[in-house]
Amino acid sequence: MSAVKNTPLHKKNGTAADTKLSMRAAREAHNGLAATLANVRATQDGLTELDASARLQ
């Protein structure tokens, strides 16, 4: 039995926010790591606690 969960690639009930995030992910897939990290304002070490807290709010 496989531990991998099969998830549909396209949701019929997706929201506009879901679509926007999917489009961004598709664009970022063409960038290198440094460009993507700069675009999302992150580092390879992740976010600081302060940055993460601010994003949650």
Order of helices and strands: HHH
The biggest sheet amounts to:
none
Task: Indicate the structural class.
Answer: mainly alpha
Q: Give the low-pLDDT segments.
A: none
- The rounded Rg comes to 15 Å
Helix content: 40-55%
Q: Mean of the pLDDT scores?
A: 82
Number of domains: 1
Distance between the termini: 40 Å
- Helical run tally: 3
Determine the oligomeric state from the structure: single chain
Q: Tell me, what's the shape?
A: extended
Number of strands: 0
Approximate strand percentage: under 5%
What does this protein structure show overall?
This protein is mostly helical and 57 residues long. The chain has one domain (16-56). The protein is 49% helix and 0% strand. It has three helices and no strands. The chain is extended, with a radius of gyration of 15 Å. The termini are far apart.
Task: Draw up the topology in text.
Elements: H1 16-28, H2 33-39, H3 49-56
Key attributes of the depicted protein:
single chain; 57 residues
